[in-house]
């Protein structure tokens, strides 16, 4: 989550500026920020893979669970091989190791740098078998020795405790058969080992499992009980290995535990005979050999070799005592991903997923060892087991703070590969893994557009639409379907939520994505209908809607035709909109509508009695992005605001209303009136009492935008002033709720907006004892932003000469209203303004400002200007709100610019400067469909 | 991936064969191109070298013929059916791709991930 926060900050910057700018109107940016945050959380969800695996308590366990499965598989193999076993002994044990060994052999080849050739692998197996039957000796050694050097020890000695252990374990097996191979052991050994070591060995085991041989007798070994045990053990082991003993010590433990102590609990590792330790080291080479042997028949091969060498004695003894299993080291696991035998691949991938769980170091190592491209390559593997496991590993790898891992997945074209797989598979689990991975990836900004480019329509068609219950051509007989809050839907909506915050171009793409807006709205309506508005999917959907509603009045095709008079006068506006105009041509029938609206607008603008305003009747039902700003959505958002207990959802819904009521186009006029007619103002005012800081903030800003409607302003002034003032800190304490600075500033700005051009509202502010708090803030607040915002309000109040008498009666004098503010003005004032101008705000925006001109003029631009400006650059949260006044305007525009430039991944550049650039860029690059 | 006029170009390329899809009267490839020697190369978001005036893939229709064939956003098109695409105008490139009498186009494309993959394999 924290990581995400960082991301969110950057987002915030982009958007936040806009928030501030529009002051009242646009605050979407903030909302955007939140979104980002959410994303991070989601990544956490991905972790849940584990959970998927098992239903047990700890996630980790779950992961392990998977491992267990692998172990089981191995066992199966053994069975098969058993028949093969020359000894006639319970070949079971021996055989299983072999399977695993085979795998290891392959890996080693890989390590050597040689290309892995499938034929070889098979040949290897054969040999091993042969050797097994015939004689352990030479053939095995020859093959295995070379590999020995490769072993994890050489490569990754200390880091991977598990590896060391693993070595010991495996060898054991191998040796056991040779030296003191007991028929009994064979049968017992497997189970016991599993119990103790199973987890450790798992990686290899899986490999072994590949062999389909299991068919013959898989059932025996498969017994789930083993699996469970293994899991637990494995859990313990793994933890220990990675956390505690990277070194040989681990090995020792295991060794001891291994052979002789099967019965023992893991933890018995305490085995610390010095001798043993030494032995272990010596063994290692052998072990490796043994390890390699597993491929063919580790046990025998190793033993044979040992015998020959004569080194046996020490090593053998130790070996016998030690568990033979060892975990493959990371390079081996990664090499196994390319093993010709599919089960080996899938087991290796599953093991990787397990290893990566909550272990950033392993993730990084996998990346450095170039494991990620291999995993991505496996996504196209035809076998479900393989691409499923690869996907699971990628999900874990993609989760976390380390964005490098995400980039690595993207750099090897992992995103298109995931999308391809999503289109191909019907396996729910795989789809969950894919979308979970994409959700993780989407938390990193530079990847957002990549996801949009490769997968937006697919995600919409494959997941969002079907799970939302929306049907583009509803069958009249069947009743409308409800949304299904599946994990896949949650993941996908989370992913889209993240990518929807990537600036204007991203918003445009999402808005124009066929069926997306329709499906999201349908899902939300379904949620409201079922009173199920607290879940994460709903939160994601509302956040997407809020983001897509941001700047809708500027970015939607043909939006300029709906601009209200003020705006239209300053036509020189945005270039970004112009592009879209052309597109508008595609939307038939618009012209008539537009004209209709234009007439309506005039009435609307001038007519303060909006209650009488009739909403336009549409000749055709709205669809696609048009749905975003139809007055119908107001009721939906208000229902959510009434029903939901989820703060994020509440904030997003309030933010959506905030965004929709911002701007000066016809639709926002309707939205503002509709909120009033749907009795939404009381709902919003009540939420000012929320315990959640951000909800208060979003609601406060929404009220500010809504008060652009004169009737709303009167109502809000009468009924909301008390709640607003209550949210301000009093002299002694910051406030009952201890709201953040941003929120306090937002509330102050809202109050400012409400009392602008309304002496009645200013009077009610006085009556709610607001002056006392305002003066306290302006004089003694630690926050310069709060101080400024409060002093602006005070200045506004003082500007109403008719109120001065009342104020003076209460003991206030001019100094309370102007002294503080004046000082800052003098110095900063000019600078602020200049900065404002420099930002090259679009004329249109200015016009908007002009609407509020009364208030603005009153307010010293200077103070606000400088901060706001700086804020934008910083991107910090602070700036979001700081700018809210003047700067805010600038910010709004910025997003537009971003559209043009949007390719610039660097958000930092997005500041006002970007805006300028964007404009300059106007000559649009030609882009031709072929 | 920068190119010096007059000098041979070395790049790791992938062959992509796209079978056009008939849509009404049109044969479509399902992707869009940007760039060309008559375009402003600084606006190309996909090029590493901002003076590169090559033809780049700017969008790929999901599920369309180009995507099926493996074309990706950001790919630089080096050749179309053997014709050089590194020094052509935008319109020339468009026409070369949309020949009505050709139902199949064979592209040589290069992309950063290809280059990197090769580099890595050479390093290791």
TrEMBL record, chain A:
Gene3D superfamilies: Leucine-rich Repeat Variant. Transmembrane segments: none annotated. It is found in: Cell junction, Adherens junction; Cytoplasm; Nucleus. PROSITE patterns: ARM_REPEAT. Residues 846-855, 872-883, 890-902 have a biased composition (Basic and acidic residues). SUPFAM superfamilies: ARM repeat (SSF48371). Belongs to the beta-catenin family. This is ARVCF delta catenin family member. ARM repeats lie at residues 370-407, 413-456, 679-716. One of its GO terms (biological process) is cell-cell adhesion.
From TrEMBL, chain B:
Residues 15-112 form the PDZ domain. GO terms for biological process: cell-cell adhesion; establishment or maintenance of epithelial cell apical/basal polarity; negative regulation of cell population proliferation; negative regulation of protein localization to cell surface; negative regulation of Wnt signaling pathway; neurotransmitter receptor transport postsynaptic membrane to endosome; neurotransmitter receptor transport, endosome to postsynaptic membrane; receptor clustering. GO terms for cellular component: actin cytoskeleton; adherens junction; basolateral plasma membrane; cytoplasm; fibrillar center; postsynaptic density; postsynaptic membrane. InterPro entries: PDZ (IPR001478), PDZ_sf (IPR036034), Synaptic_Scaffolding_LAP-MAGUK (IPR050614), Tax1-binding_p3 (IPR017268). It is found in: Cell membrane; Cytoplasm; Nucleus. Keywords: Acetylation, Cell membrane, Cytoplasm, Membrane, Nucleus, Phosphoprotein, Wnt signaling pathway. Gene3D superfamilies: 2.30.42.10. This is Tax1-binding protein 3.
